[in-house]
């Protein structure tokens, strides 16, 4: 017991900030200009969700979750952290879940109102993941290749998906679809906190807003 209590959070992050952000940069360098396609499809997914086509909007992000699992976690992140493979499997599971939900229509909120507070929160979160997050690194003085983009990098993919779930899902399905993206943001936020990155506060803020939105929508759907 004493051995476990001697560990600190830093002991579970076996890389430096320089190494981690270089990994993100390598993703950008390797897959440019795929960014344009993923961002375009992400925007199309948001439009579909708002136009009450939730099944198609649920299906479109699934390949990106699988891509991030393979290209980022299995092929790159796992070389830095032994837990990368497990996280990659979780991303694969999320991709499968989105496909199943899209094919069955389970939990789809076809009557979602654009002006309801949870949906407004979802729109704001999705737009943040699609538009603001790619700009954070360049505006902070980093390389444009360090820009984290939906469909290529884990954080914006999780953030955007959380926003989409608030728009297009309801009930138990909403909670289940939000679990893996939310857990990754917890892991990523703690990692960034250890690396002294301001991005940690951003991810925790997204998590807090998402939780409020999910609880709000769950209560409203029972009325």
Any descriptors?
223 residues; mainly alpha; 72% helix; globular; disordered N terminus
What does this structure look like?
The chain has 223 residues and is an all-alpha fold. The radius of gyration is 17 Å and the shape is globular. It has helices at 2-5, 17-31, 34-50, 54-59, 62-74, 84-104, 117-139, 154-168, 171-194, 199-221. The longest helix has 24 residues, at 171-194. It has one domain. The N and C termini lie far apart (47 Å). Helix content is 72%, strand content 0%. The chain is built from 10 helices and no strands.
List the helices and strands and how they pair.
Blueprint: H1 2-5, H2 17-31, H3 34-50, H4 54-59, H5 62-74, H6 84-104, H7 117-139, H8 154-168, H9 171-194, H10 199-221
Helix pairs in contact: 3-7, 3-8, 5-6, 6-9, 7-8, 7-10, 8-9, 8-10, 9-10
Assembly classification: single chain
Number of helix segments?
10
Distance between the termini: 47 Å
Structure class = mainly alpha
Low-pLDDT parts are: 1-7
Mean pLDDT: 88
